[in-house]
Design goal:
elongated, 6-stranded mixed β-sheet, alpha+beta
Length: 372
Amino acid sequence: MSADPAAATSAGALHIRGARLEVDGLVKAFGENRVVDSVSFTIDSGEFLTLLGPSGSGKTTTLRMIAGFEEPTEGEIRVGGRAITDMPAHKRNIGVVFQQYALFPHLTVFQNVAYPLEMRKRPRTEIRSRVDAALGLVRLQGYESRYPRQLSGGQQQRVALARAIVFEPPVLLMDEPLGALDKRLRETMQVEIRHLQKQLGLTTVSVTHDQVEALVMSDVIAVLDGGVLQQIGPPLEVYRRPANQFVADFIGESNLLTGKATSAADGAILFTTTKGLPVLMGATGSHAEGQGHMVIRPESVRLGAAAEHAGNRYSGKIMEVLYVGDLVKYRVQMESEDELSAKALAGPSGQQWVAGQRVAVGWDPGDCLTVA
């Protein structure tokens, strides 16, 4: 969603540089029910954090407390070191993009974007230059006189974003901002919003249940379930090193095998599934001994010749083949009768193996880990 820098400057460019956001011990309770339970996180100026979780996980309630739309039962919220917990929403100066955009249908695009500045009683010349700059950033020059009903879903989303940033907020909040768009447009907007966020240094908190959206857009992902923060970290870390079974199962696809981990030679861990499959795990210090689950991502499971030099190598039987365009998904049954999912790039003729075929199966010790 990048615009020509010269054009933006001539129109009166926005110079947003977001503030540090601190959420400390946030609780929201309805009677005995804690829908948000002691959630804490900090994001630095210009970072993009996604609150990720299923419906009812507490992510939207957390966002609404930061915005000032919900009053916390406990905890503190600070922006740029300043406590805003007891401040009403309209005095927090935070930008918000809602799932359904919440545009005023009787106002034009220009009037919708200008609205936050008019409420702040900014001079007319400043309103004009800031609205022009914001619409330039979201590539909607020439749409000023149109009404929301005359715009596509993607264009309405851009108007909502322009309105949220036109007053240069220290923090931008987005509640499922792409949920109303179709898949292709959603993927395009993920990249465009991320480019704009980086360009302006917007400190951003977004809510989604879409794992791919979180992985694509975020500097930091905070995974919530049952109101509790399950894990927080960079996308690659959360994906490759899930903290527990819930995170492993919720983000991406995972093979989860139940069994017991014991110490092996050279500090390694031997995980034996309940069906007797022995799996050597690397000595990374991230494995807990005792009963638990082993996690391995389907793309780490190698088949055929690719498995020959793997640290863990077995014989398996292809049980099911699913062709999904550039990838083929295989369900493989091991000799222990444990079943695994594997992903492989589709060859020139699509799938490489067929159901009923025996094949070598393998993966490296460093590609799996144990979780509680």
